[in-house]
């Protein structure tokens, strides 16, 4: 049993519906509340369990929508009520993480925070912990530190982080500066990055002193910073609801990559530690298929308890939430998602298009199945 | 309004589960009880309606399994009870049609019978009637006459009938002798047949004097003929159930093509009239897809009332028997059959393999969904 890190607080933004995983993921039961790995617990719970050895149960906070508060508290019975931050509406990652940073900074002046998505899948716990401990050491020196994932393939689905020179920080032997952030590349570029080895996937993990993060936000998005500061000042007082209700809806929606990480990289204030663990953001059913298949590409993988799935000369993924018989015949890359009130049939190549179905259903007024 | 044919009796064998159309077609609700054309009535009812102008309601008989008797009588409220022949178990077409022929011959000594499958789709009623009237005229001369379908494509899914010399029969200007029967050909052969134009599809329609049919059966399958004769003698008496129960299970299972038509062709006693109408045996979901698509090959066709089907960049067939939302994304030849307790996903190319799923389900003891 290794020790927790005294001045470190994890922040888990648990928002996002995961439209590309519809009809498995729904507004009322988003991706982070689902067990996508067959582990028996939800992705949020897996995230909590993964962070616990680093923080203990008292220093993990979750930022989530008001509607999901009860589900989060049920999933994480040990979370202190003060550590659950309710968003009255989703305003992207800068507001979510910035809110937690601002409130936690008032409560713990020297706190280092790390943000970890609620709905990613990570395997190899020791490697994960090693990366986070290094990142905290780097953050303690005043850097904003990200954990970049060592690519396992030339993916076009992720942004990349190009590492720069080595950093000399005790306890962080693998740390480097960040040379630049790059958006999702085309396949040729991705292949070049993959061959290069200095490019890592951007997994959206940022570890930083709360004051450093907020200073960077203030430099780039002063209005957003001012709003968050006002909310944070009122948070642990009776004025919280009034201020939140007035200020929150006015906050700019912007990803933390743009509001904090990229500008910090330009100033040489962004560092990176390579994460040499398996990481998957399970962004769509193609990704889920790979995860569930676990290398068995020529079979139909099943997510769910349904023993009535019959696959004949087929390969792909069946997600089953009913006890209906499901027969898949002669399809070599098929994705079937069978739920009580909605059925999706697609393939890996077109898995990204599922989001458009959600748009169509919304336009048709069928929000009851979204 | 044209006149019915006084000495003509239609026989509709309504058996067969249609395993290749599972889970739409079930043991308890076989293909012939379904509306596969969107007409609002079942295929059996369409068959009845098609024959009615030729026979009237008193001269159409149906041979069906005991279990389907009530459904048949509900579908055809005008059918005289005496014209429904119940099979105690399915024994193929020679027994089914032979039973009707033998019983009808005792009731109507000069009767001409014509057999028409309960679960085929035919369009162009006038052309159909013209073909049947010609076939009856030919049958009256002592021939066994089939109606061969003018091919619309080089199909490998059907047997072929090669026409021979013209027959000089009044009222049957298109009639020929049959040169030979051929089993389902390979694609090259099918293409040659299609180019040749003397080859017609075997649609299993046979029109003949009942005594001529039975004589041919007697010559080729004397035991089967003897059994049917014994049953027919008892049919309209109190002994029916006893004789049927004793003799029927011993009858040889053989298709009428082999027991009657092919031997008759060899003897020059088989004639053919070309059927210049649209005919489809709807043998599998690929065939059903074509039928429902009606030329619109680049869309997702829907069989069922479901207005919640969303097709995005897809083409194929969705059969919907529930009110669930069904989304099909990025699949250019997909077949989805969604029923309350079973779901099938396949494509046109593999539609024939659906039968094996039924076998697998049976082997797993899941007959409740078959």
Task: Summarize the structure in words.
The structure is a homodimer of 370-residue chains. The first copy, chain A, has 370 residues and is of the alpha/beta class. Chain A folds into two domains: 8-280, Spore Coat Polysaccharide Biosynthesis Protein SpsA, Chain A, CATH 3.90.550; 285-369, no CATH class. Chain A is built from eleven helices and 17 strands. Chain A has a five-stranded mixed beta barrel, surrounded by four helices. A four-stranded mixed sheet of chain A has the order 12-14-16-17, with helices on one face. The radius of gyration of chain A is 21 Å and the shape is globular. The N and C termini of chain A lie far apart (43 Å). The relative contact order of chain A is 0.14. The model of chain A has no long low-confidence stretch (mean pLDDT 94). Chains A, B: GO terms for molecular function: mannose-1-phosphate guanylyltransferase (GTP) activity. Chains A, B: Residues 308-361 form the MannoseP isomerase/GMP-like beta-helix domain.
